[in-house]
Amino acid sequence: MVSFQFKLFCAIIFAVIISLSMMNTVPAAGSSEPLSAAMEATGAKVEEFSINAWVKLPNGNLNDAQLADLVEQVMGQLEIAPQDYQLLYHHKNKNKIVQAEVINKKFHAMVMAQVIPREVTEFEGYLVVNMEARTEDVTSIRGMQEKIVSITNKFSSSTHISTCLIGWLGGKLMDGECHKLLSDAFMVIDGKIIDKLEADHFVSYTGFTSEITDWLAVDGKRINLNMAMRYSQYDNRTYVTMGSPIITREY
Hints:
By secondary structure, the protein is of the alpha+beta class. The chain has a single domain (4-244), classed as TBP-like (2-Layer Sandwich). 27% of the residues lie in helices and 41% in strands. It has helices spanning 4-21, 32-41, 64-77, 139-152, 177-188, and strands at 22-24, 48-57, 87-92, 95-103, 107-117, 123-134, 160-170, 191-199, 202-209, 215-218, 221-223, 225-232, 237-244. The strands form two sheets. It has a ten-stranded antiparallel β-sheet with strand order 3-4-5-6-2-7-13-12-9-8, sandwiched between helices. Helix 2 packs antiparallel against helix 5 (177-188).
């Protein structure tokens, strides 16, 4: 599981990226099936999932009590009891954040409500929901996607959601093998590779597939598929991360 600080960073950055570049706003609630097929093509199986969802609230002029009430409502609808979390308040300049987080053996959940100033007297409000967990049943991921979208759509009808699947292969792969496996993963879901990134023990591919309805516009190109492989010397594994429309967690 990733740290809360990184997850919070991802949530905020993701909200900014999407708000600037989202062109098609159909929630990617069906993205787990193509991502699962792509994972299988690499020889890895899905071990964990991470879901990041956010909505822009219709009313951005909210005080701390209203933000807290919003977070508590969402935590309740996620079936997380009040005694299992504490509300945390953050203020910087005119930015306001109220958040709650739970980490246990089953899952890691974070809900955040935020107000951001845009003009002297104008504010924008956002609700962010992050959920990650280990899983052996890929169908449970679709269920969690739908549950989170159902919750966030109660506050706004335009939920944006990003899903990541995580798996791994034992040991370090031979030179060029990561590229072959990622190419195979793209091929199995009829994906088009648009960009590649490579560093020490790390390879990332970005592209597009028509099998997933949601997409981002980046430099005039549609993007809805992000795959990465990274070798970890610590546990001698090659981690495989599949994300749509982009990877929004540490990899």
